[in-house]
Each structure stands twice: as C-alpha cells, then as structure tokens.
C-alpha cells in the first residue's frame, strides 16, 4: 500500500492505493488562508500538520487493515511558500504563500546583480516565488530574518515533521529562484541574492527518491507494520502531471483550480522569461517542464457567485444560456481576471480585476459569463506564451474543479482550437501522482517503467467552429483592454 498526501491551498487530501494503483480510499481536511492586507496571503504551518494527521486518521479508520500495510508515502504541496525555521527548529512566522504579492519591490532588488539572474534560474523574478519573499522579510522583518536556520517549502516542512529530515526535490525547488534549473543544483550565486547560503536549504533529491522514514512516534500512532519511507514527492502541478501520466513532450494539461495552469513536459531545459513562462524541473530524473500560471481562475467564479448571490451550478447554467441563446457579441461585457495580480504573460502584481463594457441592461448572467470567458482568455494567453518556444504538445487534459463543467471545457477547446480530454480519477491528480512516486521506493516492484502511466480518458471535447470567430475577436479586444488599463 502507498499513501499520497496533497497539501493544497484550501485543503489537505490523502489517498491510499494498492500495487495495482487502485484507490482504496481518500480523505480531506480543510485549510484557511489569512489575508491581513491587500496582496497578503499566509497560512500557519501547524494547520498543515493538524490537517494531515486528521486525514491519516480518517484513512486508518476507513481501511485499517490495508492502511497498516503502507510501504511508503509521497507528498505534494502548493509551491513557493516561505516556511522559516530557527535553530531550535521552531516556526519563525506564518508561511507567506504563492499568491502573496507584497514583494514586487524586492523582485527588482533580487535581479539587480552583476550577472544574469534569469539565465541561471530560467525564470523571471515574481512576487509569488520564494526568493523575493525572503528579501521582503529582510527589509521589513529584520528580527525574523536574523533567526533563519532553514527555509523550507510547504510540503518539505510537512516532510520534516514526518521524518525529521531536511529534503526537497527538483520540481518544487525550481520555484524558489535559487535553483540552477539546467543543472538541478542549488546556485550559490542566486542564494546570495537573498543573503542566504546553501546551509539554509534542504538537500535535493529527485521526486522518486527516498528522503527518510516516518518517525517512530508517528509509525506507532498509526500502527504501521513496516518502516514507512517518504519519497521526494513533487510540487503540486508536477505531481498532478505524474498522476495523469504526463511526462512526455506530446502531453500537457490545463488546471482550472484556484489558479489557472498550462503545463507541458520538455526533454531539455527551455525558457521564455519575456512572457513570464515558468521553466522548471519535472519531478522525475532528466525531465523538465514549461508552465504558464494565472493567479486567479476558479476562485473568480467563486467570487462572482458570492457577489451575485448565486450557486456555482446555477451560475454555470446562466452562463451557458447566455452564450448559446442571449446573443454573445463584441459589445457584451468583459472581465479581466486579475483579482490577485497576474503572472503569465504580464508579470504584473499590481493589476487588479475589472469589468468593462457594462450597460444598463447588463445582468448577473452576463457578468458571470464574462468571468468564465475572462479566465479562459487568460488560459489562452498562457498557451500562446509557451507556443513561442515549444509546440510539441498535442494531447491536452483538463483537471481541477473548473474542469467539472462541460461548458467551460467546451469553451476552452474552442478558444484553443484543440481537442481536450477529461480523465478518470483526475480529481485525485496530485495525490495520485505522489502515491505513484512513492511506489518507486518499493524494492519488490522491479518494473519501475510502468508505474507512471496515462490514466483512462473518460470524455473528449472538440472545438465549436460556429463560435470560434466571435470568441477570437473578443479575445483580441480583451487583450487591448489590459494594455489600455495598465498602470
């Protein structure tokens, strides 16, 4: 048996799988975000521990016999978070999360060096990444900066709690801006940009390598029969990719979760910092990937439903009716989905969401449609940014909460002019991915090549050619709205 733990922004999810990758059971436990100011986003790492223990206890209660036979654990986590420990291994302050935008000034400071920072990191410096967060702490919380003994990413703090070991792996470490992404090593030059040294960082492994064993106290607490190992795991999107079997250059996926992501593997290191494309290591050896990220995706739908006092299912019905029956035109309302700033392609932490072309006749359905469409345009922006340097991908899978909407899948398929696929078990994406990585620790599995396989396609969506012209014209107008309103 193998356990996958997915430390998400809004919840911790766990699954238990057997050697045939059948999902025995799954559990989840909610998390909350603290936002004391506009652009601030933090979590208490102790909440991750409590939620994880809650999930493991639920797994144990659901399937005690199978649970006790666990061989290894894999961990996925939301990326970029700055979790700081002092010399006594205590948390210094709440973790600053990936969608926190307070460090825009520090991004300029980080890149103001006598060498090309982007050439080593492979990425443009953004407030969401870990490095500028540390620079912000140095500039604004000197007493906290002086205490730093270790800087850990969220899942790696969870690993430390489980094993007592300091490790990270390549996919998550790529999002710190301290990794030489080509060489898959910490860069002393990049660390120095944040006034850190390699001693402040965890050791690096690949995602399928062992990083230690579950503490005896935890093994006894959950009555595990074996010495349970914990593998490197992966950042959330790389983990989701492995969960779907996406490790080859012709594959890709779009995630409509809290953030919006387009992800595609590459055989070599590629980079497009001009469009704020993320260039990261994959979580398996000798593989890389490109990724576009928009900071607000399905949470835009949550927001407009709250504002209009509408349930999500009702809003999606309204949107589909507006699109098909109410006469979508170039004059219909537009929405810029930048509620928390934006990464790809603008790298603009200060831009905010906005409606445009509002009329006295504008109703909630039209606003709800504009939100769905605006997020979809943002996904197209990201795909186009990656197409500038890589066009190998053909098969695109849809994941995340937004992918449950057939209408939304159809809309994006039409915008991209590509077929999109929905997979069985895609809701387990990241948790399944790291459970698969955990299987590499089992010495009894001799055929490791077949652990990561593409999961079964349940449904496909093809472009609606009757709508493509008006959508693409609206997309061009939408892009101009951003340029005209850029501060």
Please characterize this protein's 3D structure.
- This protein is an alpha/beta fold and 487 residues long.
- It has a domain at 2-237: 2-Layer Sandwich (Nucleotidyltransferase, domain 5).
- Strands 1, 2, 3, 5, 13, 14 and 15 form a seven-stranded mixed sheet that branches. It has a seven-stranded mixed sheet with strand order 18-19-17-16-22-23-24. A two-stranded antiparallel sheet has the order 4-7.
- A hairpin with a 3-residue loop joins strand 1 and strand 2.
- The model has no long low-confidence stretch (mean pLDDT 93).
Q: How does the SSE layout of this entry go?
A:
Elements: E1 2-7, E2 11-17, E3 23-30, E4 42-43, H1 45-62, H2 64-67, E5 72-77, E6 83-85, E7 95-96, H3 104-111, H4 117-121, H5 130-140, H6 142-145, E8 150-152, H7 154-163, E9 167-169, H8 170-173, E10 179-180, E11 185-186, H9 188-192, E12 203-205, E13 210-213, H10 216-221, E14 229-231, E15 234-235, H11 236-244, E16 251-256, E17 260-266, E18 278-281, E19 288-294, H12 298-307, H13 312-325, E20 334-336, E21 354-356, H14 364-387, E22 395-399, H15 406-416, E23 420-423, H16 429-439, E24 457-461, H17 465-485
Parallel strand pairs: 1-5, 5-14, 5-15, 9-12, 16-22, 22-23
Antiparallel strand pairs: 1-2, 2-3, 4-7, 6-8, 10-11, 13-14, 16-17, 17-19, 18-19, 20-21, 23-24
């Amino acid at each position: 048996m193998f356990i996958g733990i997915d430390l998400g922004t809004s919840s911790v999810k766990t699954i238990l799988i057997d050697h045939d990758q059948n999902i025995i059971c799954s559990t989840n436990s909610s998390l909350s975000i603290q936002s004391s100011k506009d652009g601030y986003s933090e979590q208490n790492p102790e909440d991750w521990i409590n939620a994880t223990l809650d999930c493991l206890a639920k797994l144990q209660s659901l399937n005690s016999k199978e649970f006790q036979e666990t061989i290894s654990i894999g961990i996925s986590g939301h990326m970029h978070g700055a979790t700081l420990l002092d010399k006594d291994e205590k948390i210094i302050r709440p973790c600053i999360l990936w969608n926190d935008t307070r460090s825009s000034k520090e991004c300029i400071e980080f890149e103001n060096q006598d060498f090309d920072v982007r050439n080593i990191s492979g990425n443009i410096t953004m407030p969401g990444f870990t490095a500028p967060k540390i620079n912000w702490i140095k500039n604004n919380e000197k007493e906290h900066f002086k205490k730093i003994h270790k800087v850990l990413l969220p899942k790696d703090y969870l690993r430390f709690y489980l094993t007592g070991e300091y490790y990270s792996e390549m996919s998550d470490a790529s999002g710190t801006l301290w990794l030489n992404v080509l060489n898959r090593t910490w860069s002393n030059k990049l660390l120095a940009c944040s006034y850190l040294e390699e001693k402040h960082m965890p050791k690096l492994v690949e995602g399928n390598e062992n990083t230690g064993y579950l503490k005896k106290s935890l093994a006894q607490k959950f009555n595990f029969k074996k010495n349970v190992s914990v593998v490197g795991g992966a950042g959330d999107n790389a983990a989701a990719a492995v969960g779907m079997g996406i490790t080859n250059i012709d594959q890709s996926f779009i995630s409509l979760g809290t953030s919006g992501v387009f992800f595609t593997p590459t055989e070599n290191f590629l980079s497009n910092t001009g469009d704020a494309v993320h260039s990261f290591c994959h979580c398996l050896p000798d593989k890389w990937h490109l990724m576009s990220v928009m900071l607000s995706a399905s949470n835009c739908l949550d927001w407009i439903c709250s504002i209009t006092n509408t349930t999500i299912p009702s809003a999606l019905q309204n949107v589909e009716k507006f699109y098909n029956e109410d006469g979508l035109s170039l004059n219909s309302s537009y929405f810029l989905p930048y509620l928390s700033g934006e990464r790809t392609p603008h790298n603009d932490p200060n831009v905010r969401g906005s409606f445009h072309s509002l009329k006295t006749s504008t109703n909630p359905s039209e606003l709800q449609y504009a939100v769905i469409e605006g997020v979809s345009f943002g996904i197209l922006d990201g795909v186009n940014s990656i197409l500038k340097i890589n066009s190998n991908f053909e098969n695109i899978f849809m994941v995340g909460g937004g992918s449950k909407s057939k209408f939304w899948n159809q809309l994006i398929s039409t915008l991209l002019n590509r077929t999109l696929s929905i997979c069985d078990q895609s809701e387990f994406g990241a948790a399944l991915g790291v459970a698969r990585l955990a299987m590499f620790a089992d010495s009894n599995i001799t055929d490791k090549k077949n652990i990561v396989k593409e999961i079964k396609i349940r449904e496909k969506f093809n472009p609606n050619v009757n709508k493509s012209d008006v959508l693409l014209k609206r997309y061009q107008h939408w892009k101009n709205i951003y340029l005209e309103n850029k501060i």
